[in-house]
Amino acid sequence: MHDFNNWVQVLAGAVGTIATALAVSHKTNRADYHSLIKEKDTLITQLKTEKGEFKEYFHAERDKRLEAEVKLDKLSVKFNDLKAKYDILKAKFDETKKHQ
Predict the structure, then answer these.
(1) How far apart are CA 91 and CA 71, in angstroms?
(2) If you ran DSSP here, which 8-state letter would residue 85 be given?
(3) Looking at beta carbons, which pairs linking 75-84 to residues 24 or more positions away fall under 8 Å?
(4) pLDDT tens, 1-34?
(5) What DSSP string describes 18-59?
(6) pLDDT in tens, 70-99
(7) Rg of the chain over all Cα atoms, to the nearest angstrom
(8) pTM of the prediction?
(9) Alpha-carbon dihedral angle through residues 38, 39, 41, 42, given to the nearest 10 degrees
């Protein structure tokens, strides 16, 4: 009977030790999880802020690009008009040069 009592005490001590280890690790993990969740939330907030800034930058750059394209189209039309006038004047000059 004495051996049986010893085995029960050893078994109870082992169960108590395992239970204590699980309780401590659970609390430790809970704190780790809490810090990880806070870090995740911080990262999400930071990414949302960066996304908003990037969106504003993208729209500003797109507006600048569209404005530059409109200016380029206007200059292209002016250039083509000037080139046509130049070609006409050059043809007249060459024609007068031939007659002289």
Answers:
(1) 30
(2) H
(3) none
(4) 667 788 888 888 888 888 777 777 766 666 677 8
(5) HHHHHHHHHHHHHHHHHHHHHHHHHHHHHHHHHHHHHHHHHH
(6) 999 999 999 999 999 999 988 888 888 777
(7) 42
(8) 0.48
(9) 120
